[in-house]
């Protein structure tokens, strides 16, 4: 069986200014130390910070921007809506009260036992933590009755403090409306951040699944929810290739076409599918064939593989719906209005995670880590003679973002 492998070559402190050129020089030193300077590099993944983009330019390696980070930038665009940012600020203040007051915190635990609620502590969102606002909102909804009981206990909370801390009905409405949509975005982030399976082929199916199944505006949506969906959709759609040519030569699309789950490319038009097929055939004929040994049978080191695979399938089904071919059968589908916003050249998102396992959306300021991934259970293979097909950046906004 094939088994995904990746190796950390170095974790170092970058003492100089973190300019793109300096970071590129540090990575060049690492690959030179390992004697792999002339080894073909199929891609380098970074976040969307300007210095990271500049670094890849100096390295002259195909650049694939981190889709999870990209998705968080789009989510932030929606969270900036006035009604939502105000609701988040009020929720943040409420959670902060329970973090600061041991009296209120202990009373909350007592009320949780009385109401048979999970013994969970309210969590406060952090700007640099992915999906933190969703987790804060979801936890508040879960503990709403217990929180209400604490705020209305005059022995624990003074009436004046209760008036300040208690969330108005309209704020609760905003929170309740947003949680289902934010959950889909959290599932997407968690899925695409997987380390036990390749994820590049999932990018476009997840994007289309989010737009079609979770970010599409429904007639019963509140005004605030409509604004959020539209803001996230607009921002997310703007970050992907618009022309058929650019789309059909993108590595995320090519890998998607080679993935048995998505090979029917149901989110694309017939013309776009034909272009992708043509590019794959062209790549195959232009690439020097190198003998490849068959995969060796190995015993999995991860006893949780079955559960992990099941969770992955469940997450994919939740996000993509009928866009994924888990049966392996090819099914043609008509182009939906959602595809117009992402794929056409003419027109313009798992349950709550604990705070301790939330991924941080910024790389450490003092370290630079180089990882080499491999899909063989044996030792790293000798340098391949294959040349990488030129990659289009996953994201090419007008201005690079670093938050």
Using brief descriptors, characterize the structure shown:
mainly alpha, 16 helices, 4 strands, two-stranded parallel ribbon, two-stranded antiparallel sheet, 403 residues
Shape: globular
**What structural class do the secondary elements suggest?**
mainly alpha
Low-confidence stretches: 326-400
Mean pLDDT: 79
What proportion of the residues is helical, as a percent range? Answer: 40-55%
Secondary-structure element sequence?
EHEHEHHHHHHHHHHHHHHE
Supply the number of helical segments.
16
Sheet of most strands: 2 strands, antiparallel
Strand element count? 4
- End-to-end distance: 40 Å
Strand order across the largest sheet: 1-4
Strand content: 5-15%
């Amino acid at each position: 069986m094939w088994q995904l492998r990746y190796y950390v070559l170095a974790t170092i402190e970058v003492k100089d200014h973190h300019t793109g050129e300096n970071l590129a020089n540090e990575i060049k030193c690492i690959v030179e130390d390992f004697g792999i300077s002339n080894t073909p590099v199929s891609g380098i993944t970074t976040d969307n910070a300007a210095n990271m983009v500049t670094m890849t330019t100096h390295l002259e390696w195909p650049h694939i921007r981190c889709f999870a980070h990209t998705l968080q930038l789009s989510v932030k665009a929606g969270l900036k809506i006035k009604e939502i940012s105000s609701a988040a600020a009020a929720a943040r203040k409420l959670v902060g009260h329970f973090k600061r007051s041991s009296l209120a915190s202990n009373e909350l635990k007592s009320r949780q036992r009385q109401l048979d609620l999970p013994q969970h502590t309210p969590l406060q969102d952090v700007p640099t933590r992915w999906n933190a606002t969703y987790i804060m909102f979801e936890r508040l909804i879960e503990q709403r009755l217990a929180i209400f009981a604490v705020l209305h206990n005059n022995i624990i909370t003074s009436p004046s403090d209760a008036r300040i801390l208690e969330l108005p009905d309209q704020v609760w409405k905003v929170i309740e409306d947003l949680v289902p949509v934010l959950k889909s975005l959290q599932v997407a982030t968690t899925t695409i951040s997987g380390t036990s399976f390749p994820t590049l082929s999932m990018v476009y199916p997840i994007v289309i699944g989010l737009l079609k199944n979770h970010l599409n505006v429904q007639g019963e949506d509140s005004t605030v929810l409509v604004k959020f969906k539209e803001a996230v959709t607009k921002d997310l759609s703007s970050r992907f290739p618009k022309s058929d040519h650019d789309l059909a030569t993108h590595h995320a699309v090519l890998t998607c076409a080679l993935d048995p789950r998505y090979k029917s490319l149901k989110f694309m038009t017939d013309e776009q599918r034909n272009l992708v097929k043509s590019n794959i055939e062209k790549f195959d004929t232009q690439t020097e064939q190198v003998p490849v040994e068959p995969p060796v049978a190995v015993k999995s080191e991860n006893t949780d593989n079955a559960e992990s695979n099941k969770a992955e399938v469940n997450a994919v089904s939740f996000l993509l719906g009928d866009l994924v071919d888990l049966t392996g059968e090819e099914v043609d589908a008509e182009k939906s209005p959602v595809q117009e916003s992402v794929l056409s050249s003419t027109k313009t998102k798992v349950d709550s995670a604990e705070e301790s396992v939330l991924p941080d959306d910024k790389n450490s300021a003092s370290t630079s880590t180089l990882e080499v991934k491999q899909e063989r259970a044996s030792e790293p293979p000798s340098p391949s003679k294959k040349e990488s097909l030129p990659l289009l950046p996953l994201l090419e906004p007008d201005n690079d973002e670093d938050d």
